[in-house]
Amino acid sequence: MQTRFTGSFTQQEPIDDDAIAAALAVLRTGRLHRYNLADGEAGETALLEQDFAAMTGARYCLAVASGGYAMATVLRAHGVAAGDRVLTNAFTLAPVPGAIAAAGAVPVYVEVTDQLVIDLDDLAAKIASSGARRLLLSHMRGHIADMEALMAICDAAGVAVIEDCAHTMGAAWNGVASGRHGLAACFSTQTYKHINSGEGGLIITDDADLMARTIILSGSYMLYDRHLAAPPPETFARIRLETPNCSGRMDNLRAAILRPQLRLLADRVEGWNRRYRWVEDGLRNIPGLVLIERPGAEAFVGSSIQFRLPDFGKPAMLAVQEACARRGVELKWFGADQPVGFTSRHDSWQYAPPQDMPQSDLVLAGLLDMRLPLTFSEDDCRLIAAIIADEVIAAGQRNPTKETP
Asked: How far is CA 168 from CA 141, 173, 189, 195, 257, in A?
């Protein structure tokens, strides 16, 4: 009888006691709204912003309702207008092009490499051909491109870089925290991200005018002086009257849950990376299976793992996915014809114009992805890897020649 994994790929670890206590303290006051404060009270949301700015080394931070809201708000704050073109990775998740569309702009996709990062040669070409002056860079599934090379290209062309760090909170490139290379960065605190408030987002930047606009856009009214990680009040003198309110504030309850989790982030990163290496070890030297090699400059967070089956066509990819599912292992495939759950690709997003992305399509046709929650034990990880290895080998034996993707 075949072994089967019986755990859950969507069950996160419990909220810790310190976060529960902090949430209860807020609930007992009834002051959930970030600006509903007692005399002399800073408020959990303002304190979270202060803590996260200190952790990342950013001057300013704003907590908002979601990571998607964060990205759209930064684009608006940077002056994106209807019809503007904004560059982004072809390999990402729907909230990224969705944020571009929400700001009234048009996504322009850039090819992805077989290492799952943005293709820098195609980026340079798309900058030249599109006239875009903004890149919403997705560190998709925690894979970080060569940030020095990327910034050199964008800086030379006058392209502002806004980083989507939903999968890289706690990661770094060459010792620089993810989110600290570009003009601004957006993080998510949705349940499946690195700290968990159900939904939520964080924006960081060193640009005073940009942060002032994001604060007004988020719905601060004239209460911006209650922020602890904000520019000085004089920055808002003109901005406060010309910037619309597009309310998307974080509340004190979610902030209270998040602040204790920040203190645990380094330990969580270590835990994810152990699980990543256990699964990776079990998938090495499997015929037909290609792992994504992590560059030495990348300090990554292994909260998910990806691997490629480049010589498997669609029937074989489906066979692997379905066989693993029967044995309790949930794999996402980015080559499916239709979006499934959270998984979709550039040609699914019909609010953007169709774009020819042959290199990305080839990579995604053979790409499988899997979450690695901290609830998994070492034995779980090794069993999961063994199941995947079994089914990849079996599918390869049934399909010895490459099929048309």
From this structure: 8, 10, 11, 11, 20
